[in-house]
Amino acid sequence: MEEAGLVPDHVLPKGLLPIARDQDSPRLPGLSRTVAHRASESEQLWVRFGMASAGGLVLVVPMLIMANLESKTASLVTKCVAMFLFAAGITFGTHLKPDQVLGATAAYAAVLVVFVGTSFST
After folding, report:
1. CA 89 to CA 101: how far, in whole Å?
2. pLDDT of 24-81, one tens digit each?
3. 45: part of which helix (H) or strand (E)?
4. How far is it, in rounded angstroms, from Cα 25 to Cα 20?
5. Neighbouring C-alpha atoms within 13 Å toward the C-beta of 67
6. CA distance readout (Å), 74 to 19, 52, 63, 65, 107
7. Is the pTM of this model over 0.70?
8. Which of 7, 17, 90, 118 has its CA 20 to 30 A from that of 76?
9. DSSP structure string for 17-34
10. pLDDT digits over 7-26, tens only?
11. Are 67 and 61 within 8 A, CB to CB?
12. Which residues 6+ apart lie within 8 Å of 72 measured at CB?
């Protein structure tokens, strides 16, 4: 291509290229992929831990309240308030789609309903 004159002068410089300043130990600018990957893994670890802790608290706290209440009405009110707070938390705290919010809230409500039903079955 060079013999045919198809390569412009600015693409292929004439003559030898200059020797790089870091020829002995070349380094690319910025962080390496491994460092960035480890930082991302560490951040994801803490996010998973926070979600697991929040998920446990969201289930355990209403159940503790309902276990210490004597009336079925108080347990149902606790369930409704907990379900509303859960729905508000995942609506405003995540980027879930509406159908995913509905599914998560329904699953959470089902767990609480089972607890209310089993605690007053005897």
Report:
1. 10
2. 777 766 666 777 788 888 888 998 899 899 889 998 999 888 888 888 888 889 999 9
3. helix 33-68
4. 10
5. 7
6. 80, 27, 12, 9, 21
7. no
8. 90
9. PPPPTTSSS---SS--HH
10. 666 665 566 667 777 777 77
11. no
12. 116, 120
Place of tokens 């962080």: 31
- Per the CB < 8 A criterion, the answer to whether 112 and 62 are in contact is yes
3 state SS of 118: helix
Report the distance separating Cα 36 and Cα 34, nearest Å: 5
Say how far apart CA 77 and CA 80 lie, in whole Å.
Answer: 5
DSSP-based three-state secondary structure for 14? coil
Burial class (CB in 10 A: 0-12, 13-18, 19+), 3: exposed
* Tokens of residue 44, six digits: 């994801």
